[in-house]
Amino acid sequence: MLVAAAGAGILGAWAEGALLLFLFSLGHALEHLAMDRARKSISALADLAPRMALVRRQGKTREIPVEELQVDDIVLVKPNSKISADGIVVKGSGAVNQAPITGESVPVEKEPFPSDQRIPSDESKLPDRHKVFAGTINGNSVLEVRVRRRSDDTTLARLIQLVREAETQKSPTQRFSDRFEKYFVPSVLFVVVLLCFAFLVIDEPFSRSFYRAMSVLVAASPCALAISTPSAVLSGIARAARDGVLIKGGRPLEDLGNIKAMAFDKTGTLTKGKPVLTHTWPID
Question: What is the DSSP secondary-structure string of 196-216?
Fold first, then answer.
């Protein structure tokens, strides 16, 4: 586009050159807008977890950044506040809203792990009623949670990392575009150079040959091909993440277009678990 705009200026068509630069800038602006929205979606995921935590150490309770939490620290979770770390409930019981992490619409009851039992090292053997996740919301009770993971290794942190990795994975369409562009751009430039010297073969002035070459360069510009696919994939992944759906790369996103049926095996995925009265039929 820049070469074509410069060519338009050489021909004296300043308006056409300015229009080309405007369209080129507009395309890049839209691309950056899509990328900014994607970054904001990731930031919104990160904001699910609180920045500070109430930790009890040596009999004293103080507020510290979640990055300073250590494994086996005891965290105090106040009513209606977000849980600051993945851990095990050691004191207190009540309902926890796990929708931000698991998607469950109904709060899950939590109870303390028995003090006379040893906490298993394998978390898969630990009953769910004792486990809590960073970013979930405590109910009306006070909980004490023993930290099991540092802030950079929580379920929420790993979810954010998966989203970021998904954005860097190229879909088949993106890989095809990259391969095609690698050969297409030099070919177009080669043809344009040949067309510039068409006046040596046919009886026409150089300005006409040059104008035709610039027209071909504009029509065959790969700019749209280069920016459209990555922007579309990035926007799709970010939009899904904003709604709590993790798409692990461009390939799965494209595969969604070929799905004919979907099966759900988790209560609350299709329903909210909140019955609503919609109609009444009076009977005499």
Answer: HTGGGTSSS-HHHHHHHHHHH
* Residues 162/248, Cβ–Cβ less than 8 Å: yes
Residue 205 has pLDDT above 80, yes or no: yes
Cα(92)–Cα(87) distance, rounded to whole angstroms? 14
Contact 221, 1 (CB under 8 A): yes
The string of pLDDT tens digits covering residues 51-109 is 888 898 888 888 899 888 888 889 999 998 998 888 999 998 899 988 877 777 788 89
Domain boundaries, the chain: 2-44+160-250, 52-150
Per the residue annotation, which of 116, 122, 243, 265 is the catalytic one? 265
CATH number of 52-150: 2.70.150.10
Q: pTM score, two decimals?
A: 0.56
The yes-or-no answer on residue 86 being catalytic is no
Orientation of helix 223-242 relative to helix 14-46, angle to 10°: 20
